[in-house]
Specification:
Largest sheet: none
Distance between the termini: 56 Å
Oligomer: single chain
CATH architecture of one domain: Orthogonal Bundle
Strand content: under 5%
Order of helices and strands: HHH
CATH topology of one domain: Histone, subunit A
């Protein structure tokens, strides 16, 4: 695969970027170098190698989701800049 100016322009539009002409030439050159480097992977002999879904066999170990009371309501409210007996008070941010 080779990059051309039209593809660079399309990618720039999709990524909401704009480039000067000399920058486009540099990007085009760099992208073609990257693609030719990646194409070298086609030369690898992968016969007999099993495909991997995951790189390692580790499993995600999750804990049980158990509700716990870790801080009392009074302790939580005592550090609030504004509060009443049961709630945090915050500035109004929405108008009806």
């Amino acid at each position: 695969m080779k990059m051309d100016h039209n593809l660079v322009d399309k990618l720039a539009h999709l990524s909401r970027l704009s480039f000067k002409d000399e920058e486009k030439e540099r990007i085009l050159s760099d992208m073609n170098k990257i693609l030719s480097f990646v194409e070298k992977l086609d030369d690898l002999n992968t016969e007999g190698i099993e495909e991997l879904s995951y790189v390692n066999d580790d499993l995600n170990v999750l804990r049980e989701d158990e509700a716990q009371q870790t801080i009392s309501k009074a302790d939580a409210l005592k550090n609030a800049p504004l509060s009443d007996s049961d709630y945090f008070k915050v500035p109004k941010v929405l108008d009806k």
